[in-house]
Amino acid sequence: MMPAMKPKPPYEGAPVGILMFERSRDAFYRPLVPGSVGNASTWTVPARYMTMPGVNFSRIIGPEAVQAEAVIVQAATELVREGAQLITSNCGFMIRYQDAVRAAVDVPVLLSSLVLGPFLERVLPQGKALGIVTASASSLTPDLLEIAGLPSNSERVAIAGLEGCPVFAGAWLTMSRDFDYDAVEKETVDTAVNLVKKRPDIGMLLLECSELPPFAAAVQRATHLPVYDFTSMIEFFAQGLFRRPFSGFNRGSVRNS
Question: In whole angstroms, how far apart are CA 208 and each of 79, 93, 166?
Answer without folding.
Answer: 23, 8, 18
